[in-house]
Design goal:
The protein is an alpha+beta fold. The chain has 7 helices and 7 strands. The chain is 56% helix and 14% strand.
């Protein structure tokens, strides 16, 4: 029994009444916490959606500039032809044509420079939802000798020197086990709505071994074949094949400069796994 003052009067409360009051208070606190977390999730999702929109707008701007660049190049070729025709006629005014060519060339140079700048700013990959990011960070921390995770781009990177035998596309047993653990995350509820892109990369060391050349004639082949091998393990671990795609970039997207005289760089030998919005 307890005593409660209400509107100037004292009221006696039984133990049952006190329990009911405590229960209502607990429910109110829980509801407030749930609302706080929900609002936090909304903010993160808004940032994610905003980043995707900015990325798409940036790409549209690049596409428009590349189209303008093509038109300018056609105009340049046309004026150059006119100039060549005029050079055959000594009485023709070539000076004005040369000025046009110079102006068009300057326009091409500016557009090319702007396109390169925009492409360098284009986001490759995007931050993932918080729950999925946390799971991937934990996975990378537990397998740090083989795996890296970049939360800014949402990319999981596997070091090829530990993922495959030298010059081979056969995944080692230890690496295959790690890929199966990753597939558990990709198949979880937190990764619903995301597809998987597997991208293989090499360094610039040319393929020389005869047995390797038979299977992988170039670094293009080796990078693509390695990406396919990873995809097959993920598929075998239960990830639907319709959610996945593969790419091979050879030595043409290095993370760091390769050593002189085609000596390569271990950091460039890698397989990257992107989680991207389904259907993109």
């Amino acid at each position: 029994m307890s005593l409660l003052k209400n509107n100037g009067f004292f009221q006696f409360l039984s133990g049952k009444d006190i329990e009911m009051q405590a229960s209502k208070l607990t429910l109110a606190v829980a509801s407030l916490l749930a609302l706080t977390f929900a609002l936090s999730g909304c903010v993160k999702q808004e940032k994610y959606d905003d980043l995707k929109l900015k990325n798409r707008n940036q790409q549209e701007r690049i596409d428009a500039l590349e189209s303008e660049l093509s038109v300018t190049k056609l105009k340049l070729a046309e004026v150059e032809k006119q100039l060549n025709d005029c050079l055959a006629n000594t009485s023709a005014d070539t000076e004005s044509l040369q000025e046009k060519i110079a102006a068009l060339q300057e326009d091409i140079d500016k557009k090319t420079e702007l396109i390169a700048k925009l492409q360098s700013q284009l986001v490759h990959g995007a931050p993932l939802p918080a729950e999925l990011t946390n799971e991937l960070q934990k996975f990378a921390a537990e397998n740090s000798e083989l795996v890296e995770f970049d939360p800014e781009t949402g990319v999981v990177k596997f070091k090829s020197d530990l993922l495959f035998e030298l010059g081979s596309d056969i995944v080692t047993a230890d690496a295959a086990d790690m890929l199966k653990k990753l597939s558990t995350i990709i198949n979880s509820k937190s990764a619903e709505g995301f597809d998987v892109v597997v991208a293989g990369h090499t360094d610039d060391m040319p393929i020389k071994r005869a047995d390797t050349l038979t299977q992988h004639p170039t670094n293009w082949h080796l990078s693509a074949h390695r990406a396919i091998s990873v995809e097959k393990i993920l598929e075998g671990a239960g990830i639907a094949s319709k959610r996945m795609s593969v790419r091979g970039f050879g030595e043409f997207r290095p993370l760091e400069a390769n050593a002189p005289n085609q000596k390569g760089n271990a950091k460039n030998r890698r397989v990257e796994i992107y989680l991207v919005t389904a259907g993109k």
